[in-house]
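Give me the fold.
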Amino acid sequence: MLKSFLLVAGLFLACNNFVFAQTACPPFWNDIQAFAKKDSAQLPPKNAILFVGSSSFTKWTDVQAYFPGYTIINRGFGGSTLKDVIRYAYDVILPYAPKQVVVYCGENDLAGDPTLTGADVAQRFETLFGMIRQNLPSATIDFISLKPSPSRQALFPAFQKANMLIKVFLEKQPNAHFIDVYAPMLDASGSPRKDIFIEDRLHMNATGYKIWQRVLLPYLKK
């Protein structure tokens, strides 16, 4: 028992000091520690709106400016999957006691593992949803649909499947919403708009985030 405790304690200290960051620490450990350092300098207020998920949030560095009058906490960490958000839920979601949790994640799950299906992504979200609901029973929980990233066009059927299943799931849940950004990001022919993405054809520019602003605003809680 003592030996196991010492092993765990040693791993924690190693990660905390970033000694074995590439081999011993879980993915995104540095990102989570950066959030903790930021919180130690100034803890965000309770009862805010928390954005959590992958790089579409990470790169939305001026998200607060898009939603004046709302208090937004952005805890996106780029490259993350729903498994990563689940792993760190007790670090980047629950401590803030938000009144609303807005999740954008799932693209990287499918892009990083060709064996996964849209149903797998939906199941992972349901697991995350259950964790949040159990610990924050009065919080509103929203999921932003997987977006039609042109660089991932081969995955669109899986994206659409995940979106459909999550939408059906959330329609049965109280105080929860599915927020569709997929359709508003398509042009008249049904293809992803080219003018709303940066050069990598994965991440959005300001025009893309303007679409998200318009779609999200009716769902945000005052």
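The chain is about 45% helix and 10% strand.
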